[in-house]
Amino acid sequence: MDEEITAVREQHQFNIANLQKYLSDKLRDINSDTFIVKQYGKGQSNPTFLLQTSKRRYVLRKKPPGELLPGAHKVDREYRVQKALFETGFPVPEPLLFCADQSVIGTEFYVMEHVQGRIFRDIRLPGLSVAEQVALYVAAAEVLAKLHSLDLAALGLGDYGRGPGYCKRQVSTWTKQYRASSHRDVPAMDRLSDWLMNNLPTNDSEVTLVHGDFRLDNLVFHPTEARVLAVLDWELSTTGQPLADLAYFLMPFYWPSHFSILDSMGGLGGAEGVPSPTDLAAVYSRCRGIPPSLPQWNFFLALAMFKMAGIAQGIYARFLLGNASAADAHKFGQSVEPLAEAGLRITSAPPTSLAGREQLFQMTPKGRAVLHQVQQFMKQHVFPAQQVCAHQASPGSSRPCPVFPLQTRARAAGLWNLFLPAVSGLSQLDYAHIAEETGRCFFAPEVFNCQAPGWLCVIHFIGKACVLIQMRPLPSTACSTEPDVSSSDATNIRCSLRRAGDQYIIKPGCASACLRVCVSANTLFSFRHKQHSMVLVPLDTAGVELVRPLTVFGEDDAIHGGHFEINFNDVRVPVSSIVLGEGRGFEIAQARLGPGRLHHCMRAVGLAETALELMCQRAAQRSTFGKRLYQHEVIAHWIAECRIAIEQTRLLTLHAAHCLDVSGSKEARKQIAMIKVAAGRMSCRVVDCAIQVHGGAGLSADFPLAQMYAYVRTLRIADGPDEVHLSSIARMELKDQLSKLPAKL
């Protein structure tokens, strides 16, 4: 950051002409007439300098001058680890060269690219919105988990550290470093050192690459996005126990809020907008695929405090020697004892893990941040547009809503394809809460490109990503029903698929779709669940006949993406159009139906909430027979029953989302089938009560209730009728119950 750049301080001066001459043979743009060297004012370890030419910027890191602690300031290790990480795509500045020739500037050094972005020196992130604060901390936790998930052998860093026993080595190392640089006796440091050595973790065998100084102010964030562009300062990196890194990152949450080494290092406990350490640990654990309960957390926190105290002591010692890297190094001497005492308080606390007490079906911090963004977007853009549409709507109008301009806004805000975990980073449980919010407006899912997630999931996960990229932001669709057969039994499908050389031929059959279709066809395999295949067919393919648009309850259904009757008359498509493989259509359908049904059901909960709001408003505004509508017991009971039904369905849906996250679609089949029945019934009942309270107006276009009913009534047919799901639930329940009986029965 420009305000942190100063002229090179006197104790760090070196021969700039020598440096320019050396670099001119090795880096482009150094031969420029302009070659300016300035020093970064922050950073407490190896001095860091900005090299600026007329065309490009570089960053130089070097050892401090003068007498140094043994084993410290190994810039060659920094260069090695950054080079290995950069080559794998991990976010670090690109290292460009290392120089061991001390005759150039007096010490070893290396040069790396300059990364333009945001560095937050005040880790409380003042001035940012709550959503952005949460998103930044979540991004930091995610990149730390990514670091700890890297394969050391693949990085070529198998010999970078000493392997198991990291915690014991850390206690020993920082004890020696503290005593070698101590300027006065601090009894708390000695007591903390003894406690740590006597309470080492029972399992210290896990070995990953660790950063050693992972803090928010060692990260460069994208100028406008909550995305880490580069992790800086790898001087303390090695291999060892990753939880030590996590504890060091979360350490500011555990020291007193009034304590501050610098203004940027104040305590985070209770800081407004900043996620809790439990939330961040949950993000980290989920990204690494490990349990959220982190045992012996007291030890790792106390070790972090001890290490920070040792670092502070070393910085102050360099200040006394006159070779400190930062201008504010004199402040660190007074921080050693408070840090040691904070560590001792942690050691005397009852043994804890970081799991804490979790709320039922709690969202991740990232999920909450995205939900907050969606809520704000809905409030600022979607709901006002919905009011305009309602005012302008007229009989026969197909799509009065400004969906496409809102899509452009949503995509620019990063609120796009939220239903895809691999794209959004959200769990199914996270997205369930978001889907409820979007369910409050008919066209909101389409605004966020989440209107028909099931089939987009198929294309995304099954490997047709190229098709997904080519698709315009319109509903993805499927041809999976036929007017002449009972489609609740998929084996009735008459549309057939036959291979002819390098093509597939689709024989006559019809269904509903729009834009680009995923056709389910019979491939005539003998095994019942291997009879179906799926192929992708562009609608401009020869033989595809758009017969007619269909209506729902006699009205245009364009607001839901539309349904068309389509004929396939000897349609030929390349063999590459097959999705996953022949005979795997049923498998694909089942894989996509779990998340798809879940999303429909949660949107139905949001829709029901809106219907209940309208019902209550109407009941409070209108009077009959001398009293307000809500004062009539029957209507009061409707309101109460609707609230109960919505809460029950929400919990059932969130439970299904949790099962889907934890166990996958196959294991969550019963929960998903139950919500498919419950959500359709509940939403139909709530909207029906709201219509009744509105009287004739509830059937008109003056209120959205009739349109709501048309939508939710289709849920009891779409993706399988209630009766099919009830039979499936019964079979699974019987199987579960009978498995509990003694074998002799």
UniProtKB/TrEMBL annotation:
| CDD domains assigned | ACAD10_11_N-like
Q: Which SUPFAM superfamilies match?
A: Acyl-CoA dehydrogenase C-terminal domain-like (SSF47203), Acyl-CoA dehydrogenase NM domain-like (SSF56645), Protein kinase-like (PK-like) (SSF56112)
Q: Which Pfam families match?
A: Acyl-CoA_dh_1, APH
**Domain Aminoglycoside phosphotransferase as annotated: residue spans:** 37-257
GO BP of this protein: fatty acid beta-oxidation using acyl-CoA dehydrogenase
PANTHER family according to UniProt: ACYL-COA DEHYDROGENASE FAMILY MEMBER 11, MEDIUM-CHAIN SPECIFIC ACYL-COA DEHYDROGENASE, MITOCHONDRIAL-RELATED
Protein name according to UniProt: Acyl-CoA dehydrogenase family, member 11
Q: Which organism is it from?
A: Paramormyrops kingsleyae
Q: The organism's lineage?
A: Eukaryota, Metazoa, Chordata, Craniata, Vertebrata
